[in-house]
Amino acid sequence: MAAVQAAAQAAATPATSAPPARWQRLLPALPILDWGQRYDRATLAGDAVAALIVTVMLIPQSLAYALLAGLPPEVGLYASVAPLLLYAVFGSSRVLAVGPVAVVSLMTAAAVGEHAAPGSAAYWPVAITLAFLSGAMLLAMGLLRLGFIANFLSHPVISGFITASALLIAASQLKTLMGVQAQGHNVADLLIDLARQAPQADLRTLVVGVLATAFLFWVRKRLKPLLLRWGLPAQAADFVGKAGPVAAIAVTTLLAWALQWQAEGMKVVGAIPPGLPPFTLPRWDPALWRQLAVPALLISVVGFVESVSVGQTLAAKRRQRIAPDQELVALGASNLGAAFTGGFPVTGGFARSVVNFDAGARTPAAGVFTAIGILLVTLLLTPALHHLPQATLAATIIVAVLSLADFGILRRTWAYSKPDFAAVAATLLATLGLGVETGLLVGVGVSLALYLWRTSRPHIATVGLVPGTEHFRNVQRHAVRTRPALLGLRVDESLYFANARALEDHVNDAVAAQPALRHVVLQCSAVNAIDASALESLETIAHRLRDAGITLHLSEVKGPVMDRLQGTALLQQLGGPVFLTHYQAMAALAPEVLAEPAESAPCS
Amino acid sequence: MAAVQAAAQAAATPATSAPPARWQRLLPALPILDWGQRYDRATLAGDAVAALIVTVMLIPQSLAYALLAGLPPEVGLYASVAPLLLYAVFGSSRVLAVGPVAVVSLMTAAAVGEHAAPGSAAYWPVAITLAFLSGAMLLAMGLLRLGFIANFLSHPVISGFITASALLIAASQLKTLMGVQAQGHNVADLLIDLARQAPQADLRTLVVGVLATAFLFWVRKRLKPLLLRWGLPAQAADFVGKAGPVAAIAVTTLLAWALQWQAEGMKVVGAIPPGLPPFTLPRWDPALWRQLAVPALLISVVGFVESVSVGQTLAAKRRQRIAPDQELVALGASNLGAAFTGGFPVTGGFARSVVNFDAGARTPAAGVFTAIGILLVTLLLTPALHHLPQATLAATIIVAVLSLADFGILRRTWAYSKPDFAAVAATLLATLGLGVETGLLVGVGVSLALYLWRTSRPHIATVGLVPGTEHFRNVQRHAVRTRPALLGLRVDESLYFANARALEDHVNDAVAAQPALRHVVLQCSAVNAIDASALESLETIAHRLRDAGITLHLSEVKGPVMDRLQGTALLQQLGGPVFLTHYQAMAALAPEVLAEPAESAPCS
Fold first, then answer.
1. Nearest CB partner across the interface for A456, out of B148, B157, B474
2. ipTM of this complex > 0.85?
3. Which of B72, B440, B150, B141 is nearest to B311 (CA)?
4. Which of A316, A458, A533 sits opposite B154 (nearest CB)?
């Protein structure tokens, strides 16, 4: 956190300011102390406008994501107040908006659904407990500076996971769009159940849902260009475009209220008890905690990754930085806040943060104002939401999540690298077929396994001298000079236990194929580390070569690797000193090759 | 297997022989077809002598390891016949001796003990099923060429595991030495139970056991030097030294028979039913198979690693090679053979293979002769083993396994590399405290996690020009030239998802610290791969730098990496072409630094 504070101060104050004192660096960092000191009227105006726009956007989203998580709609509002306030205090991003988001809500539904039936009295307390565990884990990871764990989710795995989650979410919303009940933890089960339920579909719900979806897609893709062509200023066109969802909600709510659709069987949001978010406690049940531990960890990591990538992207646009470990603390506090105020797991959302940024938010105070806005709605305006059709909310979710799906990643990774493609495909298929938790674990497992597999099969090139230079290149790619008595091998990988044996095998094979061999020189310019297993293998190689009358040499060993090799038996077993350059090795061991006139290039 | 055949043929025939035809390469390799064709009288003599010596050594070992595995002693003899014959047909090592070994027997006891009480009727069939599963897995791994899996057991993990297993085995034999019953899956439980049972110890058993142990240690350490000092020829001294254990067995057996110790309460081997090994079938019980799957896999991998390292060491002494994938097939066949002839999991043993090699075995026919020898003993000589005290067998096990323990590995890895030390210590402690299976899994997990952790934090050096040369070196280690407008960074790691973010952070920090910066050049000589995540990060870096008026360049990109980057958006986002050398980058971007006179060295 010292780094966070230092970074925040560097951004805030001239470079001449003194570094924080030792006691200050031990205190938890509070970014609010930085931006709060310099808060002024202009900043206030920007923050307030942004907060108003985000509040209008968040109300239907909060309701919708609570329903997606299997919770009553008002829980989405509760989860949008305390987390925003706490993030404003602890967060290092100036514009991140924290609250319920689609993928985390889906993961919450999957995790809580294992322990309670959606709609039952036992369901909500489990969701609260999940938020508590997730918050505690995020906080602990932040304090222990374990933010690097998120680095083990590769971009292909994240893309595959988000794309599959978007499909799962869209499929799960079809039932609301049709006004039926359908279940299934994977896409196939869900679609089969939906097809079975299709005859019971409520026609009016279906029409409203499909029209709302079509309208929202049209607003997203076509409205803004149309308005621009009509001569509206860009900013106004942008604002109207973003207000589209609000229009869909207002129109369908008014229609449902005027025509009394609820009485005719359409599902609407219904009565939301007005009032402050309740004070709640997680269930104190170690057995439940153990069972929720893995889902909570996955939700934490996914939420953290989503939040940090949004935060970093937006911070970079204004040349600001965010501090990942501080973000863990802030998200941890936000989730703990959600747990104690009747909410469920939250994180920094992509769409709302972008809207907040575009609308001109300057500091996390915008989040505070948004929280106040939502609180006012929760206290005063819930009756206005009574007749909002659930099908309209389903339509907003479908349109929102399908913009997250990125099928192009399959084509791009296929073109660039097959292991990355395999990681995307495995994550995508496992998430669709086996559910979100298994899918994510499969993705991480596959990507790590493929990485380890690649490093366990190092590229080892036989190198020769490029005539007229001091450079050595792969004999298979370049016309180079070699000698039967000398073998130069360039090892293109750090040497560690998984590839130590491959090196032994390669040297054995190369020696068997070159009977006149007297010297083997390993060029170590790409060897960034040698672990104890590889050291033993190198000693074995030196020993076996010596038995065959061949000496082993090393060249171009990097400083840190050389430091470590000092004092090992290996250095005594070599045929001489470690050569600083491969050229020096050649000059010492096979000088005649240097004396030859260059065939292809003059000496320079 | 094509490679095996090719290698075997290369060793057997002059280099002019034609490569195997396509259909031949598709057939399973049978090394016996190679050495069998050239078998002659001299080879027969060497093999027969070696077989005689190994048979004498194997009889007590087989009995002892069967007892260690919780099985009746004769099962050890059964497990030493069919596996030896099958290995002779399929194995690629000329001298490996397959049969029950200490560590695998301990693992068998741990795995089977979960499903049946030692000594109960249900125990043996579970052991047979375990051998069957292990054999099937080894065979499948061999056919699918998955031998590389064993590379993920690092040397430190193997050393820690073997050392801890040796301690566990020695501790478990103390109860036999004391003539009591004691249980416990970890060393602490076992020793506590032993202390509790101590008052019930059988004094005669204890005296015989302790004396036998002391004698065997003396034979191992002192007898051969003594005999040499007395003027015995080296070979004879060696032979007498190896015959020591036989003397201990003969003497204690004769005493037990003459003095009727069994009647006075001493545990002896007892009546062994003479006859051929029985035909047995594994239990056809999918639920049991599922539960035994992980232990069977661990036993397979540990057995394979032990066997291959012995085989490779001995093959190298005679300039032969072994083929790891063929070894998997051979060990698979051996274990399947054990399962169908009343045996239990087997692998290539260290001590017996060395004895076989030293005694002059030339081909796997020595294994066939040994199998015949053990078969004859099983048929004819079991009455002679009746009075062999179990305490003597315990003494032979203790002396054998303590030679496997290698505590020096702790000191050596501590000195060389702390992560390797951590892997040894974790494996050692987990194996002692949590049992063999958990211990091994902990070891593999810790060593992989430490490797991934290291690669996720790449060493990134800021480099400058060494005056008077074309070389670039770390500014922190060398007096080099740099320019405020140009930053050269050498990335000492392949770029992949786990370290992509670290690179972004490093570049961000470096840019923030150098306000006059115009160009960043990443020197990629140690970057052996760039995955899709790292490509995205590089694009992000290029994008952010461009926003700040800084251009990103790459230099010294390796051929395979460059091939892959062709056609990506990254190359368009760079500030120009990829430089072949870092020096060329400097010459193009900051030529003034080259023109300066060298302070420390004349131009060469």
1. B148
2. no
3. B150
4. A533
